[in-house]
TrEMBL record:
Cofactors named for this entry: Mn(2+); Mg(2+)
Residue span(s) of domain Endonuclease/exonuclease/phosphatase: 25-241
UniProt KW keywords: DNA damage, DNA repair, Endonuclease, Hydrolase, Magnesium, Metal-binding, Nuclease
Gene3D superfamilies xrefs: Endonuclease/exonuclease/phosphatase
GO molecular function: endonuclease activity
InterPro entries to which the protein is assigned, alphabetical: Endo/exonu/phosph_ase_sf (IPR036691), Endo/exonuclease/phosphatase (IPR005135), TDP2-like (IPR051547)
Organism: Streptomyces mauvecolor
Protein name as catalogued: Endonuclease/exonuclease/phosphatase family protein
Pfam families per record: Exo_endo_phos
Length: 253
């Protein structure tokens, strides 16, 4: 499903009242096992202020890999990676990092360790809590992680916050529904671009998303297919997921 023009997503800006428009990208990068140059080109073309990464490198020389991705994407490392078991946050120099915290979640034997990467970022007079996540493939564990996500978001104690992640759940799933009941689902609120986030040619599913708390105005959210500077060959080569890009208006604190 396509909604609107891929060229009409608002750009990053600061409004006269102190509110800001920030562009938030959520992207599962499959541990940078694919074409890293293509991945960086996609990220740069989205011109994000914040990137919520999933499946960041977690093992040998993971910090070096994270630094490489940040550098080639013209961003800076904020938090996460191995310390959050995969989720990571990058930002532009527009953001001032106030605090960060990486959280490891309770682990079910036989399943992957999961975690959250979190940060509080300031853009002028506006402050934004950020949480990047990659939830379990197993339904019961995933639902528990969804509840922990909402608790961790509340613990940030921020009136305005955003969550970007690979939820391993579709909008009709109970974990996705739990989050959509408590937060704004970016695509459902203001659809823009392409809906489905699975790799081109795979069965159509929306399992990656950007959520925002009430008070954050969603100006548009979706997969930036066809955005100037993003080639389909790069989307195919970069990783096995498609990115989700959202433009959000965050009030001044």
């Amino acid at each position: 499903m396509e909604r609107g023009s891929v060229q009409d997503l608002p750009q990053s800006t600061t409004e006269p009242d102190g509110s800001v428009v920030v562009r938030v990208l959520s992207y599962n990068i499959r541990s940078m096992r694919d074409d890293v140059a293509a991945l960086a080109r996609v990220i740069r073309a989205c011109r994000p202020d914040v990137v919520c990464v999933q499946e960041a490198p977690r093992f040998f020389r993971w910090r070096k890999a994270a630094a490489r991705l940040a550098r080639t994407s013209e961003l800076v490392y904020v938090s996460g990676g191995a310390t959050a078991s995969g989720p990571m946050i990058l930002s532009s120099l527009r953001a001032h990092v106030e605090r960060t915290e990486d959280v490891l979640l309770p682990r079910t034997p036989g399943l992957h360790q999961r975690g959250f990467s979190t940060a509080v970022l300031r853009f002028g007079r506006a402050r934004l809590g950020v949480l990047s996540c990659h939830l379990s493939v197993e339904d019961e564990e995933r639902y528990g992680q969804g509840r922990l996500l909402l608790e961790r978001l509340a613990a940030l104690d921020m009136p305005y916050a955003v969550v970007g992640g690979d939820f391993n759940d579709r909008p009709d799933g109970r974990t996705f529904g739990l989050l959509a009941d408590a937060l704004q689902d970016g695509w459902a609120t203001k659809p823009w671009g392409r809906e489905h986030t699975t790799r081109l040619g795979d069965p159509l599913q929306r399992i990656d998303a950007v959520f925002a708390t009430e008070g954050v105005e969603v100006l548009g959210c979706g997969v930036p297919m066809g955005l100037p500077g993003i080639a389909e060959r790069d989307l195919r080569a970069a990783t096995d997921h498609l990115p989700v890009l959202a433009a959000l208006r965050v009030p001044a604190a």
